[in-house]
Amino acid sequence: MSAAVLQPGADVLAFVRRDPGDGLNELQLMLEGVHCGACVRRIERALARQGDLETARVNLTTRRLTLRWPGEPARAGALVGTVTKLGYGAVPFDPERLASLDGRGERELLLAMGVAGFAAANVMLLAVSVWAGHAQGMGEATRGFLHWFQALIALPAIVFAGRPFFRSALAALRAGHANMDVPISLAVLLAPAMSLAETVRGGEHAYFDSAITLLFFLLVGRYLDARARGAARAAGARLLALNAGSVTVLLPDGTTRSMRPEAVEAGQTVLVAAGERLGVDGTVSEGSSELDTSLITGETLPRPALPGEPVFAGTLNIAAPLRVTVSSAGEGTLLAGIVRLMEAAEQRRGRFVALADRVARLYAPVVHTLALATFLGWWLVMGAPWQEALMTAVAVLIITCPCALGLAVPAVQVIAAGRLMRRGTLLKSGTALERFARVDTVVFDKTGTLTLGRLELQGEGVDPEALAAAAAMAASSRHPLARALAAACPDARPVPGVRELPGLGLVRDAADGEWRLGRRGWAAQAPEDGVPGAELWLGRPGRAPVRFRFADQLRPDAREVLAALRARGLAVELLSGDRVATVAELAVELGIADWRAGLTPAQKVERLEELAAGGRRVLMVGDGLNDAPSLAAAYASLSPSSAVDISQTAADAVFQGEALEPVLELLELARRAERHVLQNFALSFGYNLLTVPLAVLGFVTPLVAAIAMSSSSLLVVGNALRLGLAGRRGRT
Amino acid sequence: MSGLLYLIPIALVLGLLGLGAFVWALRSGQYDDLDGEAARILFDEEDDHGGEPRAHS
């Protein structure tokens, strides 16, 4: 069971908030498994049938459900139950923890875009009249009047809609470098300012339309970019919130209370139900069970947990309820330690500078020098009046304004991210595509990445009668081996009278005595022989014991994908925290020459940094908690959607499904997207080579600038759209 | 040319109306879930009663 699904009995009450305004209870839930409108409808209809809810609305973009209802807060449990009964995972979260991730910036951009669009349309209306007037001999008074009207619309609109660019440009200048927004801001401020001066003078040309249209185009690009990032952020936030499970604390007076993990103090006693994930570190004080530690160590087999044994947050309690005395919670847990290791690795990794920003760093000074040279050339050398020289320089700024960088790169990214999302791969970072395109080494984790992280019964030679008998016993247990056994025999019905002895196995009181299913030493009464891998023995009185062996299954296409990666010239390596024997076997099976086993999270990071120091650009694919630091340390990283939340948060992209093929697909698409971005740069630089000399020589009028700018924008956007078209054609 | 004196204000007012409608739609949260609204229009009306949500700003 994935950690994403709300555990039965987990308390949602801690997350219900009362709106002081109207006295309604509000609960926000993250949903898992919602993919389309039909899901939205099923959930909303089921909730509507619960009666008198003020709001029950699913947001399909962010996969969140907002519930608001009057009266008892305690109805929360029943409402969440309604959703989980439909088969969707629902996890409560605290919206304040995610407040900074809200789409407020996106809304501001949309509003700015609306205002710029309105102004651009109206200014263009007037500008076209002026251009027509040039041909038909419009009177000077009428032209001045139309220019004044343009100024009236354009100036406030530019001041309002340009704020996102001005802010970013100011921030960059304060930090002592130039980004793309500096030339943009300069152009959209200088052009209308000069045009206003021209209008006052009663001059012939005004660039109000160019400035506002430019702003509109750039805002479209910025909004697309923000939406792509917003979707990525929402995915990240969803994963973050899943950490917010609550723990059940046993108070000294014998009552229980559910608390957030970070609020628990050392020395308190926590109850851990079977099937629940531990939220704290501590020692077992009562009860004995087994823990699934695969997320922390990468080990496939469960580990016994007996009184006095230390246990760690993040592990899953499998067999029986436990009482745990808390030794540390929140920041002090092993889990938090791994998170710190991850953050440290992330900081050590060189900050990747997006291609557009690198181009901008070269582009901005060149453009500014060119404009300045034009101004000085016309004014001092050619002896033109300074106003005229400045107008020519403004024309240069407008013509060189980076529409390709501002519009076409986001367009390529949005289209690529959209295609990946339809195939079940979520991109989580804006620069991820560029990094995926440059990867030359792929490092895999074993459990859960190359394999499915799920045990399956091995071999056909098992006696069907014994299998049926064992599966019938196993059907009532939650132990991973028992579940694998029950899954191998789907017809098996649970039989009554089965007891679970933690650390040993299952007992059934049958007619001919005690049937045992469990460890070799106990069930088969034979000494343990230390065979690697997992096994269960079925012991029945008077009959020979039967052995069932289990192994973690490879992902179905692991071999083909690894071969394809090698065929593309990528080096493949395997880093695992599991035991040497298991890893060696798998490496041989998959033909991986470079493998290391028994690594701690820190050693994995070390190896990655060693590779990076050797000039390699490494893609890390991993799923466990022990992989999270290496995911953060790698040049680019990818994790399956079955991974722990924190690994998904650390990774640049998350893929769904059992196949490993998305790894290939992602690398392929990233390379294609990179090609399109480079083509767009080539297109826009080519266009600049053509038009900049015209601008410098003073041949560019507002009409020419408007035509040139629109056509180059359409050209690069059209090229970006080809990425989506090519994919569609390729699929059918 | 005197036609401009009322034609331009008319164009402006129409544009402002459009802008006003857009800002209203944005404020009332209609742009918060672009994927969901696309599907929502296909739902049958008669199923929706009781706790059917209303848009909140």
Helix and strand succession of chain B? Answer: HH
Largest sheet of chain A: 7 strands, mixed
- Radius of gyration of chain A equals 32 Å
Structural Rg of chain B: 18 Å
Question: Quick one: biggest sheet of chain B?
Answer: none
Strand order of the largest sheet of chain A: 15-27-26-25-16-23-24
Major interchain interface with per-chain residue totals: A-B, 40 and 32 residues
Total of DSSP H or I helical runs spanning 4+ residues of chain A = 24
- Uncertain runs of chain B: 48-57
Structural class of chain A: alpha+beta
Strand tally of chain A is 27
> Helicity of chain A, in percent?
40-55%
Mean pLDDT of chain A: 80
User: How does the overall form of chain B come out from the CA principal axes?
Assistant: elongated
Strand content of chain A: 15-25%
Gap from first CA to last CA of chain A:
36 Å
**What is the overall pLDDT average of chain B?**
75
Low-confidence stretches of chain A are 1-10
**What percentage of residues of chain B falls in helices of 4 or more residues?**
55-70%
Q: Class by helix and strand content of chain B?
A: mainly alpha
What is the percentage of strand-forming residues of chain B?
under 5%
Summarize the structure in short.
With 732 residues, chain A is an alpha+beta fold. Chain B has helices at residues 3-27, 34-40.
Structural write-up:
The complex is a heterodimer of chains A (732) and B (57). Chain A has 24 helices and 27 strands. In chain A, helix 21 links the parallel strand 25 (618-621) and strand 26 (636-640). With 732 residues, chain A is of the alpha+beta class. Chain A has a 7-stranded mixed beta sheet, with helices on both faces. In chain A, strands 7-6-8-14-9-12 form a 6-stranded antiparallel beta sheet, with no helix packed on it. Chain B is 56% helix and 0% strand. With 57 residues, chain B is an all-alpha fold. Chain B contains 2 helices and no strands. Chain B has helices at 3-27, 34-40. The A-B interface holds A 36-38, 40-41, 44-45, 47-62, 103, 107, 110-111, 114-115, 118, 121-122, 125-126, 139, 142, 145-146, 149, 153 and B 1, 4, 8, 11-12, 15-16, 18-19, 22-23, 26, 31-36, 38-40, 42-43, 47-54, 56.
